[in-house]
Amino acid sequence: MSTAAPRTAGPDHLWSVDEHLDDILATVRPLEPIELQLLDAQGCVLVEDVTVPVSLPPFDNSSMDGYAVRVADVEGASERYPAALEVVGDVAAGETDLLRVGPGQAVRIMTGAPLPPGAETVVPVEWTDGGLGEGPVTGMRARSLAPEGATGQVRVHRPAGPRAHVRAQGSDVRAGDRALEAGTVLGPPQISLLAAIGRGTVRVRPRPRVVVLSTGSELVQPGEELGAGRIYDSNSFSLTACARDAGAIAYRVGAVADDADTLRDTIEDQLVRADLVVTTGGVSVGAYDVVREALSSVGDEDEPGSGIDFRKLAMQPGKPQGFGSIGPDHTPLLALPGNPVSSYVSFELFARPAIRTLMGLTDVHRPRTRATLTASGPLTSPKGRRQFLRGRYADGEVAAVGGAGSHLVAALARANALIVVPEDVESVAPGTDVEVVLLG
């Protein structure tokens, strides 16, 4: 969702990385909250606190298969002098009609079953003869195979203290506690907790729908034959994976040929399922840079704030960028460069924060840290550009991976960080403390 119009500047204005990012984040707004079923809400962000309506566990229950007894009846029990108790019945998980445990009695109890009245502790079955009149057993036989296990006599070989092996009511969370805070991303543990406290639905901001498409008549889909002068389309796969990693529901569109009308029609067809559109390629100043040609004039005079602004950024890689909104709903669109490393770095710096903003998160950036540069020689950087070098980070040290070329995909696959070289630095010596963006 986009509201405010992106800023524009003269064609010769060189935008800083921070200016461009600030413009994106000032324009993109979180998606409106909706109520979703629990599994549909996985990966979404809560918009309100969730309060516990019922304590967990809701009642005292056994954490072991064994016997519910009174403490005094098993005090001093040993294998040589076992405590002999009368078994008066079973209590299984889900049981509601509970037997009372009196002096000298025991109830066979299963894991998760309510602690019966009169019982003060639970003796694990391994501390007993299981009602068989022999030595210690390793477990209970199925009730259908040993109906006598629920009656007769059991010998207990070890004592148990008060409330041993008993899960107390409310020992996990108590009614009225705050289970989850607004802003929490719902993963499997959070979904489990919501189900455990009886929530069937939850109010969240939905995962953004991101459409990714690449441009270029030279692109061939992986799995197809590669003709002369052609290359495989890797960018649309890379950026779709990046969008999913950021938390979005991402749709990959096959490469669009270098034709402005075709590109415009394709994007318009995709708007029905897009909260954000990301294109890659065709944003520079070449004669075949179709994205710039197709989208430079899409703004509607009757739709204030619409249109795409193409810019030059003081960064390497990723100097050419485009940003704005398109269509009647002002769907945000990020136009990224076509070189694989440029598109990936641009996505991490600009598209990922936009997706996280749409989700309603407050911390939208990759984590950053400081590290010592390890290298055989100094790293060079162009004056006036903020450079992002691929790096391998571990244990407080980072090493550059591959060269500065924006086409080196193999080096990118080995990187787990970006080394940030500021605009006013032209050379970084080994041993220098540098800023690192962590990608993993």
From TrEMBL:
Provide the transmembrane region boundaries: none
Instruction: Report the domain of life of the source organism.
Output: Bacteria
> What reaction is this protein's catalytic activity?
adenylyl-molybdopterin + molybdate = Mo-molybdopterin + AMP + H(+)
Q: Which UniProt keywords apply?
A: Magnesium, Metal-binding, Molybdenum, Molybdenum cofactor biosynthesis, Transferase
What EC numbers are recorded for this enzyme?
A: 2.10.1.1
Q: Where, if anywhere, are coiled coils annotated? A: none
Q: Which cofactor does it need?
A: Mg(2+)
The pathway entry for this protein reads as:
Cofactor biosynthesis; molybdopterin biosynthesis
Q: Where is the MoaB/Mog domain?
A: 211-357
Broad enzyme group: transferase
Function field: Catalyzes the insertion of molybdate into adenylated molybdopterin with the concomitant release of AMP.
Q: Which NCBIfam families does this chain map to?
A: Glp_gephyrin, molyb_syn
Q: Which family does it belong to?
A: Belongs to the MoeA family.
Q: What is this protein called?
A: Molybdopterin molybdenumtransferase
Organism (species): Streptomyces prasinus
